[in-house]
Structure formats: structure tokens, C-alpha cells
Amino acid sequence: MRDRAQQRNIPECRRERKQESGREEREGERGRGREGEKKRERGGEANKETDQRKKERNKRKRPEWEREIGKRRETRVGKREKSKQRKTRVGKRERQTKRDQSGKERERKRETSVEQEREANNEMDQRQGEREWESGERERERESAGERQAKRVERDGARHAKRVGERDKQRDGPEWEIEREKEREEQTKRD
């Protein structure tokens, strides 16, 4: 046993085993040529049969506890199936009452929606009126704000000119000359 286990782990042995298995597969394919033709003639039934055979073989290969799990899996009811069962359990009368209730609710909703629409329209009209009044107010405020802004600009301009004049007295030289030109350009842009 140990020798075999050691052989399994040796890479050369592994390689040989792989080559042998590959050879067997290839030979098998060669031998199966006629069988494949027969399958094509018979159609899909042959494929089903082979699938069934494969399944059986796999079941035989699987250990006992795995087979048990498989059985359980086959008998287990899926979620969809359960929901179907639940639906069929509900009686006809109950379903009818549900339908009636939903119909009544729909009617009620329709009535309330009409009322709500009326109220919403009234509110919209009111809001429109308020908006128009507010916009008029805003325009008046804007005009007064514009006047105030103009006065402020005049005052600031005078202050600025005064400041610039004082600064010019303190500065002399080519560097200050460039700065003065920039300030003059900014001033003209503002005006």
C-alpha cells in the first residue's frame, strides 16, 4: 500500500498514468465510431439511454450517505410547488370574498382620487395666484434693491478712488506703475 501511495505522488508516475488514460480514451473513441452512427440514426432516444446509464453508474460509485442525500433531494418539494399547493388550499368562497373586497376598494380609491384631483386643482389655482402676487412684490423689491445697489457702487467708487490716490502718492517706480495701470483697467471695467 505504501509503495502505491508513494508512486501516486511521484510526478513521473502521475504523467505515465495520465498518458495511459488518454490512450484508452482515444482508443475508445475509435471503437465507438459505428455506435455513434447508430445513435444518429435512432435520434435522441439513444442519448437519453446513455444519460440514464451514466446516472446509474454514478449512483453506484457514490457512497451510501451521499445516495441518501440524493433521495431526499428528489422527494423535497420546491418553493414554487409549495406556493401552488397553498393557493389550491384556499377555498373558492374565500377567493370570491377577496375579489369582492378588492373591487370595493378599487371603487373607493376611484372616488377619492376624483376628490383629490379637484382639491389639487383648487390648490394649484390658489398657488398660481399667490405666485403672481409674489412675483410682483419681488419685482418691486428688485427695483428698490437696484437703486440701493447703484448708490452703494457710487459710494464705494468714491472711497476706492480716494484710497488709490493716497496709495499713488506713497508709491513711485516702474513696478508701482504697472500695478496702477492694472487698477485703472479694473476700475474702467467696473464702470
Automatic annotation (TrEMBL):
Top-level taxon of the source organism: Eukaryota
Spans annotated as Disordered: 1-191
Biased composition (Basic and acidic residues): 1-54, 63-80, 91-191
Compositional bias (Basic residues): 81-90
Protein name, UniProt field: Uncharacterized protein
Organism whose genome encodes this protein: Aristolochia fimbriata (White veined hardy Dutchman's pipe vine)
